[in-house]
# Entry
Amino acid sequence: MMPGRYKSSPSSTMSLAFCGNDNNSAAYNVDKGVLNNGCFLDALSVVPHVFLLFITFPILFIGWGSQSSKVHIHHSTWLHFPGHNLRWILTFILLFVLVCEIAEGIVSDGSTETRHLHLYMPAGLAFMAAITSIIFYHNIETSNFPKLLLALLVYWILAFVTKTIKFVKFCEHGIWMTQLRFCITGLLVLLYGTLLAVEINVIRVRRYVCFKHPTEVKPPEDLQDLGVRFLQPFVNLLSKGTYWWMNTFITSAHKRPIDLKVIGKLPIAMRALTNYVHLRKAFEAQKTKASAYPQGSKSIWCALRYAFGRPLVLSITFRFLADLLGFAGPLCISGIVHHLGKENKTFLPPVKLLGVYFISSQEFLANAYVLAVLLFFALLLQRTFLQASYYVAIETGINLRGAMQTKIYNKIMRLCTSNMSMGEMTVGQICNLVAIDTNQLMWFFFLCPNLWAMPVQIILGVILLYYLLGISALIGATVIAVLAPVQYFVATKLSQAQKSTLEYSSERLKKTTELLRGIKLLKLYAWENIFHDSVKETRQKELTSLKAFALYTSISIFMNAAIPIAAVLTTFVVHAHLSEDADLSPAVAFASLSLFHILVTPLFLLSSVVRSTVKALVSVQKLSEFFSSEEIGEDPDQKVPVLMPPANHNKYQALPLKVVNRKRPTREDWNSYSPPRERSNEAAKDDEECIKEYMVLPNQDVPQGDSSVNCYHYTITNGYFTWTPDGSPTLSNIDIRIPHGQLTMIVGQVGCGKSSLLLAALGEMQKISGNVYWNSLPGHESEGEDRKRGSVAYASQKPWLLNATVVENIIFETTFNKMRYKAVIEACSLQPDIDILPQGDQTQIGERGVNLSGGQRQRISVARALYQQTNVVFLDDPFSALDIHLSDHLMQEGILKMLREEKRTVVLVTHKLQYLPHADWIIAMKDGIIQKEGTLKDIQNSEPELFEHWKSLMNRQDQGLEKETVAESNTALERKNLRRAMYSRELAGKNEEEDEGDSVESDDEDNLSSVLRQRAKMPWRACGTYLSSAGFLLLLLLLFSQFFKHSVLLAIDYWLAKWTSDVISGKVHSEGKNCTTNQDCRFDHSSYSMVFSILCCLGIILCLVTSVAVEWTGLKVAKELHHNLLKRIILAPMRLFETTPLGNILNRFSVDTNTIDQHIPATLECLSRSTLLCVSALAVISYVTPVFLISLLPLTVACYFIQKYFRMASRDLQQLDDSTQLPLLSHFSETVEGLTTIRAFRYEDKFRQRLLDYTDTNNIASLFLTAANRWLEVRMEYIGACVVLIAAVASITNSLYNHLSSGLVGLGLTYALMVSNYLNWMVRNLADMEVQLGAVRRINSLLKIEPENYEGLLSPSQIPATWPQQGEIQIQNLSVRYDSTLKPVLKHVNAHIFPGQKVGICGRTGSGKSSFSLAFFRMVDTFEGRIIIDGIDIAKLPLQTLRSRFSIILQDPFLFSGTIR
# Structure
């Protein structure tokens, strides 16, 4: 009773009191008991909130104030208590309901003379308490101290009890659903009750009170690893929804560029392996089902649905919620404008019960301010759900891509070699599966929610329009529907145009590559113009195709802009003239305008969604064909019992386990890949085993040459092998034995099946019949047991290299042993080659690295086999690309010395018969069968003819080789090496310079800050270059058309506001006039609709003009820049090509040109449109309510900083995403090419692991990029929602007090809604534009190169047509250098060569022989002296003339593509 008593003596002057101070107030009447007093009930509900605030504030400020910084660093404490997400959701709902309660209290209080604090103050305290509760909970959770949750438990109990008492009392007094406060109280009882249940559940699960042993909980495994920086799965719901955890990540990009170290590792649940396991289970689950197992592409779809369906359903749910909330905008605008337009409010006076005023929900929603707040909340929620839907869909797509790539890779590892060799499947096709088809599937998953959401959006939109406008709405909707197929048609044409453009651009690139590779030859022969014209011709075709592309793009842009205008025009004009009493109030007009904007969006997306679905279906079809292709036979790792009597089988099982294990390590042993030391022990064991156990095969002679051979490493008996399952056998009747620890040579003519024999042993061929035994034990072959094959060091005929350094290629996934490595390098004579490489053995070789000669590739491949410490070594024709010296050295040092000493079993396929005497065992082959096997002595005795044939061949080889030895091979090799040395020395110099540059940068902090400043700047200069290339007239057209278009669009909406406002004032006027005839009272729409139609038509025309102007500008710039670039590159001095890597110049012609051709125009259009829309929207709002300008400043500052941080982070992440794709794709192509080698070495698992690492790296970059985009969009959308709220409140106030017309209020709100849509587009496009303008900047830097001086001092008439006729050459004091910054290469050379003389120039490498010949062509800088030929100083001749009159054969030959002729 105290609160009532205490408040019952208010001073008469106070206008504020808890229970109000009306004179006859029933608020203080407690005659019927305290609990029947409404004010006391409200006072009672304050108690729990005050309790919570008093208890938690000290804990929060004292306990966590000191710790708050630590909490976020050690994110290992991010443990979610049971019911974590549910608690956050309930708290959000609670906060919303409490806001409604505060608003309801304020509105109902407005109907009394004095203020009653008890109507809204308890709700305000409850709001504060709810926020405190969730902050308190979050801190308890992050520090994992659940006992403090007891405070919350007490709070929920108290709040639940007080609200229940209030609810019960309401029911007793007959307050029912018609009163809004009853509904709100009921909801609060429900919410507090549920939160109490959640709290009790935490006690039940975590047992932190009432139980002896509380549950021990460890943080998630991922978070114990501090390398995981992608925290989206671990943070709380608020941080998940707003991407709050990304704040530090994005702002840090401003201080230091983002690299792979910064983004860290992927969480376990998102790793490719985890997702692959899900996918595999999904495929297996289908097979185990009793029903018919779906085949082909259907099975893939089913598996994808099973593995990734759930997150997709979640994404679709979020999308539905967002789309439903999207309709709140138009409805709230309609409500606000409708209520402002109504002068008389016909609502019942508020009911007074329990001494308190109550209002109905109808009256509550009739308040314009309430609608403004509801609109704000609806926008916040809608944007949050929309971004959540995007994020979940994209994350699912990325996970799916990782799983699919892993599945494809596992399939590649089991692919039949014949598929590749027979051309059924090319490396290109497989790479396309990875690069294109998995991405198509990912994109389909991104767009999948649209498939479900679009129909709902369209149906709801049309229903609401019909409700607002009647039949005329259907006419407007029909206009949109009719034009949608046209859009689809344009979209298909667009993709066709893009395809043909791609074909032409690849042809142009091919020609450009050839031109750049042979640039020296072109310059020496003066063929620049011929090739320039050839490239230009192809470019012309490409531009024609680009014109079609530009045309369809501009039509597409035009339709996107014009369809809504056309729909609005038809709807309103028809609506105005259809019925006499048509309601064309501002409320109806602007609500329908917003609805049309909503309706157009799904129809724009329709074409891209349909296209994406079709592409996904095609991709899945391709994938299903690939997954069903042939695989190699049973994995030799698994024991494959062949038909045999069961008794024997049992006998084998009874073998002592030790022996089996020693000879055949378990699967795990192979997976753990013992390091070399262990392996050599294993080898020793094997040897012991072989020596202990004597073995004789039935029907085979023991080789007599070496009695110590008493064990075979592998044998094939009666083997028939083929490449294709239905083909004839390639190898027939094969019976061979490979002796243990000996050198076996396989010889025979080309194509007789030597390499096939090795591959058959490795299990790469299809076995038709027969048996293959590895590590044979005596007496066990008869059991038909294929022994387990270990790792075989295999050097294939066509050497295969990794995209890695020389060292990595040689040690090939094993540990580095310096002594062994040096010995291998020596044995393969690789040291001289390594010395001339730019970074020695750390130089990148392979596809993306330095090009090596065939011999060097072959020796690295053999070095790899020698380095591995396997028991068996297969060398397939290792001497084919080597000259006699290298072959001899490799044979002596590598094979006979190194491998023999290690007692390794060596099988050598060779054509060099002179090495046969070194062989312990020889296998001679002919036409796919074994001609003879045995020692050389056996063959001499049993096949004298064959032996004599070999002998004659050996002599012939020896004689021929002896002659050429000294003279040719050495010089050829030296020449090759030294020629490359010159090139690589320059490269090395360049790299050193770059490295120096890097070290200077890292040392110098100022430099870093200047680099960061450069990153922060927008490339305005590149933008200027781009626009100036278009020419003055086009630029003017572009600017004015954009400006006029947006002015006209503004005018259309403004006219609509005026028209509708006049309709209302006309109605009011006619009602006041009390007109007699119906004719007088009718409002004349014709003049208004006339102006409206003219403006709309003008708007449509201007939309067409701007879209064409943008694309036309793009075309003009593309044409100009490519033309100038090609011209400048062709005329550039030779020095440019010697100092700039070819790839760099090629990138300007490929990637950068493509960006300028196709991407910049679209981005430019989008950027200009969104920026101008934002500017015009803000201008309209400021015009309607000038007060808005005050709030514009803080919002602009917020926008500026958000875009500044985002742009830099986005650019870094975009580059990471692109750069991490390259190693992934190259790993696929590399694996396909080296499949036999990888399988021979048994390195499948290591390569799979490497693939998983590459995939995860690429996926984490993609995920961070997605999260960064969502981070930006959420923030921009929230700023947009704030704009709407401020604009709404300001315009409502202005309308109520300054009589602003309701039409203008509608206009202002419609434009405010647009701001939130276009703000993030503006920033996203700005970031894209910045990246794309980099292409212009790079091309521009090449355009600044000084060309060679082609003009001569002599005119063509002064040069004799037959010059040079005699050929007399005078060289006077000639000094030559390659560049003005370098030392001279020729100093003061004097010579006189008479006509007809043949002159030889000799000298050491680097003495200037080539430079001397180049001086005649003015390819080098002659800074002193002169060359006079037939009386004319060549420096005075035009370059074209000079070079066309001379001829030269270059040191390194270059062939152009085409026929020999």
Notes: The chain has a mean pLDDT of 78. The radius of gyration is 42 Å. The longest helix spans residues 944-1003. Residues 649 and 783 are 7 Å apart (CA to CA).
